[in-house]
Amino acid sequence: MISRRKFIKTAGWGVVPLAAALNSCETVTGTSGRDDWRADFSIMGDAARFEAATIVTYQSMIDSGILDEAPPALLAGMNAALFKGHHEEHLALFNEAFAAKGLAAVDTGGVTADPRLNDAGNWRDALILALNLEFEAAGFYFSRMTDQLTTTAVRKSFANVLPIELSHVVAFKFILGEQPAINAGLFDKFTIATQL
Prior knowledge:
By secondary structure, the chain is mainly α. It has a single domain (about 35-175), classed as Ferritin, core subunit, four-helix bundle (Ferritin). The protein contains five helices and no strands.
């Protein structure tokens, strides 16, 4: 039997090359020296404005009381407030990056709720709109991250936001009783609720 001390001494040296190899396997990288941070920050500006509009739309849903009509077990209002908070975090993340480059912040001032909210006749319609907003956001982050962004920092920011957006989609599908709430294919086969 090998002693613990001998194992740690031996295994420790085996971990160093593995850690170095894994660290060098950066999966979110730029495009071979053609990084264009100005273009990427323009795309991030679009994302920030989308986040601001989503925040305002959620707040309008909450303020209108339309979600109060949902069955209490669905916790529709609580989830809307929670997800709004996530979008506030995303906007803050983007604004930190803008500040680091000396660019203007994006806020919710002057932003109006998504006009589709006017067509929401009940809590279910409002949640279908929320689901669609989240799905649109996930699609935006996924497409920009995979085929347009060039800088590692912005791609990492989008990679951190994307799973949150998708988790919101899955949560709303579950709340709306759409089964399966998770299905294969991400964007190819991922079905969403009926449009408003």
